[in-house]
Design a protein that fits this description.
The protein contains nine helices and five strands. With about 230 residues, the chain is mainly alpha-helical. It has three domains: about 70 residues, no CATH class; about 100 residues, Winged helix-like DNA-binding domain superfamily/Winged helix DNA-binding domain (Arc Repressor Mutant, subunit A), CATH 1.10.10.10; about 40 residues. Helix 4 crosses helix 6 and helix 4 packs across helix 7. The two termini are about 30 Å apart.
Length: about 230
């Protein structure tokens, strides 16, 4: 049964008619309204209190726009917060650990996957990293130019390409992962150990269920399920 979105709004955020006003954006952005609460400046400079206020402003605008539609607001809220949490963690890891080593989140994930599997076919790297084969080609080329990975051919099929970390790549991955993991632990500092374990279990459950949905919808391979 679907639920009207208005019933899911926090009670301390009343919907108000009239001109839209925002008090949590520290600088206007060049959108049509001129005061976008999701501007990059707001996200980058707002303190914790202001960030929470900007989030509430955004949620109020969503409620206003969708108030006449019949939608599952519980699902919408859960999925939106999964996106927000992932984006926040990815950006935090890039700023604190990866950028000083000239790595993006995607290049780090590729480095990690190849490090774990030692020698792995490119299509499986893309699958494990959750990226397209085209994206992997660009990332792998960059990492290869930096001397972090090498390419080879599969011993049983010369058409299949294998990726392997170079000694330099292994040293980098081994030195970086403790730093990455420390920030992962810090990011979950607001959760108890039991909550963190439950979050991991629920997230894995969603991943497996979505894979089943994708296969039912016509995906025929792991690449179709994960690397759209």
């Amino acid at each position: 049964m679907t639920r009207p979105i208005a019933r899911r709004l926090p009670t301390d955020i009343p919907l108000q008619a009239g001109p839209k006003t925002y008090t949590h954006d520290p600088d206007p952005c060049p959108c049509l309204m001129g005061r976008c609460t999701l501007s990059r400046v707001a996200r980058a400079t707002a303190n914790d209190t202001d960030s929470a206020g900007a989030l509430r402003d955004s949620e109020r605008e969503v409620a206003t726009t969708l108030s006449e539609l019949s939608v599952d607001t519980t699902a919408m809220g859960a999925v939106n917060n999964i996106y927000r949490a992932f984006a926040a963690l990815r950006n935090h890891l890039e700023r604190t650990v990866l950028v000083p080593h000239d790595l993006t989140w995607t290049s780090w994930v590729v480095l990690w996957v190849v490090w774990i599997w030692e020698s792995i076919e490119t299509r499986h790297v893309a699958e494990e990293a959750g990226i397209s084969k085209g994206t992997l080609t660009g990332v792998a080329t960059t990492l290869e130019k930096r001397g972090l990975i090498s390419r080879g051919t599969h011993p049983g099929d010369g058409r299949r390409v294998l990726l392997t970390l170079t000694p330099k790549g292994k040293r980098l991955a081994k030195s970086l992962y403790p730093l990455v993991n420390a920030q992962e632990a810090a990011a979950l500092g607001a959760l108890s150990e039991q909550e963190a374990a439950s979050l991991s279990t629920m997230a894995r459950k969603i991943v497996l269920h979505v894979a089943e949905l994708s296969i039912a919808a016509g995906a025929t391979s792991p690449d179709d399920v994960i690397c759209r």
